[in-house]
Specification:
By secondary structure, the chain is α+β, with helices and mostly antiparallel strands. Helices cover 25% and strands 38% of the residues. It is built from 5 helices and 10 strands. The strands form 2 sheets. A 6-stranded antiparallel beta sheet has the order 8-7-6-5-9-10. It has a 4-stranded antiparallel beta sheet with strand order 1-4-2-3, sandwiched between helices. Strand 5 and strand 6 form a beta hairpin.
């Protein structure tokens, strides 16, 4: 499962996901919000694809139209309202364990710069807290955050049990985030959101 398939899978699973929509030439964007526009291809490598993250409506339209011109027939261009990440990370799930990796603020701090505040390894079907391994700042994620992430990890484990039984794994990207206005100021309550899902 690549990024393209992952976007569609997320819509059908009980996960809190970004409210993405397909970008078209007729798309109209609210000028009072910042936007993220991303590309996902149906085949071939889907790493390092172009994206415009946290841009105003006119720039999002410009970039979205450019992406459409370059990727029409090869995949999709999606868009969703930009959010401010307070904590981000990945859930890495296989048949033996679930790994939570987390970093302060944006996920780029983990995937691009290699920063990590904590890694937590939870063996599958364990009920003993002593079996859980922590590397890094044990207090970076609260018990309620860990429980919430593991609960959604169980949803993913159930949905992809066939792939996991074949020694595959599932990687889901998440953030605890705030919606934002045009000035990058947070709006409303913090929420958990998933925005990428792929099979490894």
């Amino acid at each position: 499962m690549n990024k393209y398939m992952g976007f569609y899978e997320m819509k059908g699973i009980s996960l809190p996901t970004v409210p993405w929509r397909l970008f078209t030439q007729d798309t109209e964007l609210d000028g009072g919000l910042l936007w993220s526009v991303r590309v996902a291809v149906e085949n071939s490598s889907d790493l390092n694809l172009p994206r415009a993250i946290g841009v105003n409506a006119s720039e999002a339209m410009r970039q979205g139209c450019e992406f459409l011109g370059n990727y029409q027939g090869k995949g999709i261009v999606i868009y969703y309202p930009y959010f401010i990440a307070q904590k981000s990370g990945v859930l890495d799930i296989d048949c033996r364990r679930t790994v939570i990796e987390a970093v302060e603020k944006d996920l780029w701090n983990l995937v691009t710069y290699g920063r990590k505040n904590v890694s937590i390894i939870v063996p599958f079907e364990t009920t003993d807290e002593n079996d859980v391994q922590y590397f890094g700042d044990r207090d970076f994620l609260g018990d309620d955050e860990i429980s919430e992430l593991l609960r959604y990890g169980s949803v993913l484990r159930g949905r992809f049990r066939g792939k996991l039984s074949e020694d595959g794994s599932i990687l889901a990207e998440w953030s605890y985030a705030y919606s934002t206005d045009i000035m990058h100021e947070p709006i409303g309550e913090r929420y958990l959101v998933f925005y990428e899902l792929r099979g490894l």
